[in-house]
């Protein structure tokens, strides 16, 4: 258990001053509201890579130590760490198996805990929810959830919830959240909102983070700056196979380097293998991972293409990102467009009754795709490599890239 993802989430890591202050605030919030007559909720916001999961990991460890301390106000509390992401849950459970006071059974998927406690007509004290933007916001019979909103279901079962929320990481209509929707939902509850600012994951300068944020936000394609490469290995490729070879080389040198892609290529949940082909590049999508080891840590996945479903929440050293067919350059060459007709991820856009306005649904599809790009672009600690399927976008990116490296 010496990989960087586990080290990052270890409760024995020294938190920054900002993180330590937030952990202290969270513990005080919990102690203040643990015996309230109605649930209370602390919402931690922040962009991808700002250390939200680090805060939660250390907070939960402290809560579990307090639960076993007879002198603590939180003695004998029943607490759970919840995450609706099977790959991330594996990592947390692996950490729990090696640390005193943490049990794997305290780390659960929300549906499992909700169904279990409802059956027993039981409650719990404190819930810590990582990636709360992945909580279901509608029934999902496939996953055995028959309520209408997982966040509300959890609030009915506990005294205090601490959640991390990033509306730029919402990826599916069945987990469709916006900040406005969340605030409206939480009106009846005691609540506190706090925000993390500093980017910890990417060793990149602010100009590159700003470039990514515009690319996936207002879709403006800002000029590439020479400073991009000063502290971070940022590259644009005109050949996807050459990008793959570069990622394989980085993986052999430093490990945890993978190819990932946006939607736009054949992908069906039928148990078969579906390939992404770009010229000489030809690799299958990630396969369902039945092991206890997260996908990114399996050596053989260097020969697969990762997706948002296997990479969200994880740190990789190097990421080679394929921007698939839906990601295009606008006719005037200034903006990014999302062609929703070329989306192949049908699971993300299943119908929901409360999104009946065609324009709202179209806007949601565009935003979910931009969110996925943002998530994938911010996976790499040491480097980000890009290849664009769209010829016009590929040419534009390569022209600017060659201008700053020559």
TrEMBL record:
The record, for SUPFAM superfamilies, names: P-loop containing nucleoside triphosphate hydrolases
Q: Which InterPro entries match?
A: P-loop_NTPase, SLFN_3-like_DNA/RNA_helicase
Please report the stretch or stretches of sequence annotated as the Schlafen group 3-like DNA/RNA helicase domain: 40-390
Its domain of life? Bacteria
Listed name of the protein: Schlafen group 3-like DNA/RNA helicase domain-containing protein
Organism name: Secundilactobacillus silagei JCM 19001
């Amino acid at each position: 258990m010496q990989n960087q993802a586990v080290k990052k989430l270890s409760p024995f890591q020294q938190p920054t001053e900002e993180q330590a202050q937030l952990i202290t605030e969270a513990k005080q919030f919990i102690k203040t509201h643990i015996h309230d007559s109605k649930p209370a909720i602390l919402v931690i916001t922040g962009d991808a890579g700002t250390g939200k999961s680090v805060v939660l990991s250390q907070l939960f460890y402290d809560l579990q130590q307090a639960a076993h301390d007879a002198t603590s106000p939180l003695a004998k509390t029943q607490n759970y760490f919840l995450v609706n992401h099977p790959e991330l849950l594996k990592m947390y459970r692996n950490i729990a198996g090696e640390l005193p006071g943490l049990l794997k059974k305290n780390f659960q998927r929300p549906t499992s805990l909700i169904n279990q406690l409802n059956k027993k007509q039981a409650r719990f004290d404190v819930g810590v929810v990582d990636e709360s933007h992945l909580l279901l916001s509608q029934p999902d019979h496939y996953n055995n959830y028959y309520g209408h909103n997982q966040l509300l279901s959890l609030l009915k079962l506990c005294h205090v919830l601490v959640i991390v929320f990033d509306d730029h990481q919402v990826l599916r209509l069945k987990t469709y959240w916006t900040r406005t929707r969340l605030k409206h939902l939480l009106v009846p509850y005691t609540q506190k909102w706090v925000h993390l600012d500093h980017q910890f994951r990417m060793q990149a300068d602010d100009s590159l983070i700003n470039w990514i944020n515009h690319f996936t936000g207002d879709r403006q394609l800002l000029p590439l700056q020479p400073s991009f490469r000063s502290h971070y290995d940022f590259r644009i490729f005109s050949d996807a196979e050459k990008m793959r070879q570069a990622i394989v080389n980085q993986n052999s040198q430093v490990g945890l380097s993978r190819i990932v892609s946006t939607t736009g290529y054949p992908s069906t949940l039928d148990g078969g293998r579906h390939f992404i082909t770009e010229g000489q590049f030809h690799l299958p999508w990630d396969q369902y991972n039945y092991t206890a080891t997260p996908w990114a840590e399996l050596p053989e996945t260097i020969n697969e293409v990762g997706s948002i479903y296997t990479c969200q929440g994880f740190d990789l050293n190097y990421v080679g990102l394929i921007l698939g067919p839906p990601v295009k350059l606008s006719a005037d060459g200034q903006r990014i467009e999302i062609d929703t007709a070329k989306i192949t991820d049908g699971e993300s856009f299943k119908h929901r009754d409360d999104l009946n306005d065609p324009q709202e649904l179209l806007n949601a599809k565009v935003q979910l795709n931009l969110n996925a790009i943002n998530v994938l672009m911010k996976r790499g600690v040491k480097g980000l490599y890009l290849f664009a399927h769209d010829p016009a976008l590929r040419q534009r990116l390569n022209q600017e890239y060659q201008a700053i490296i020559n």
